[in-house]
Amino acid sequence: MAGDGPCKKAPFYKKEHMAKRRFRPKVKKEKKASDENIKEEGIEVSGTVLEKFPGGVFSVQLEQKQLVLAHLAGRLRRNRIRILAGDRVTLELSPYDLTRGRIVYRFR
């Protein structure tokens, strides 16, 4: 009796007693093109690193002779890209504060 299969007394083993799974089509939500969903994009400029500060902050002089404080982007930090004084870099400036930015690329 141990290897005969499912118990004959239990009604939930019979196919006609199993609950049918109901199909519910997924309703796709439309994306709104409102201003609150659009993330502000930065302004890309290039410059030269002047000095390195503790905490991964760099002083960068832009091509327009403006000084900017910049930190490393997560992608550069994750891949351990070393940045030294004198390196040419591409920055993404914040549209809210033009004296701060993020280093997104280091030229070779």
Short recap of the structure:
The protein is mainly β. It has a domain at 43-106: OB fold (Dihydrolipoamide Acetyltransferase, E2P), CATH 2.40.50.
Helix content: under 10%
Considering the protein shown, what is the CATH homologous superfamily of the domain at 43-106? Nucleic acid-binding proteins
Characterize the largest beta sheet: strand count, sense, and whether it forms a barrel.
5 strands, mixed, barrel
CATH topology of the domain at 43-106: OB fold (Dihydrolipoamide Acetyltransferase, E2P)
**Element string (H = helix, E = strand):** EEEHEE
Are there runs of 5+ residues with pLDDT below 50, and where?
Answer: none
**What is the CATH architecture descriptor of the domain at 43-106?**
Beta Barrel
* Tally of helical runs: 1
Strand order of the largest sheet: 1-2-3-5-4
By CATH reckoning, the class of the domain at 43-106 would read Mainly Beta
Terminal-residue CA separation: 76 Å
Q: Structural class of the helix and strand makeup?
A: mainly beta
Strand content: 25-35%
- Taking Cα atoms only, what radius of gyration do you get, to the nearest Å? 30 Å
How confident overall, as mean pLDDT?
Answer: 81
From the spread of the alpha carbons, the general shape counts as: elongated
Question: How many strands in all?
Answer: 5
